[in-house]
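Lab notes, practical 5.
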Amino acid sequence: MQIGLTAKHAGISRQTLQYYLMVGLLEPTEVTSSGRRLFDESAVKRIRLIRKLNQSGYPLRAIRELFLEGRFDSKGVDS
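Output from the prediction step:
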């Protein structure tokens, strides 16, 4: 899915998704030869997890650290 459709499926704005990309919370599943960023369902699940954690009081920086430490896999469950 392209960025706009991914954002819609995840329930966030396109700008929020772009911010998640910028700060390293999310990476595209694929980048086409023309530079389009594409995402799959696991990316949508990760975005939803980010939102839930953030709404529970975790700052985005802490969420990013959890992902970097490997505390969550791409599906959002403990590794």
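Observations recorded by the TA: The CA atoms of residues 65 and 71 lie 9 Å apart. The longest helix spans residues 41-55.
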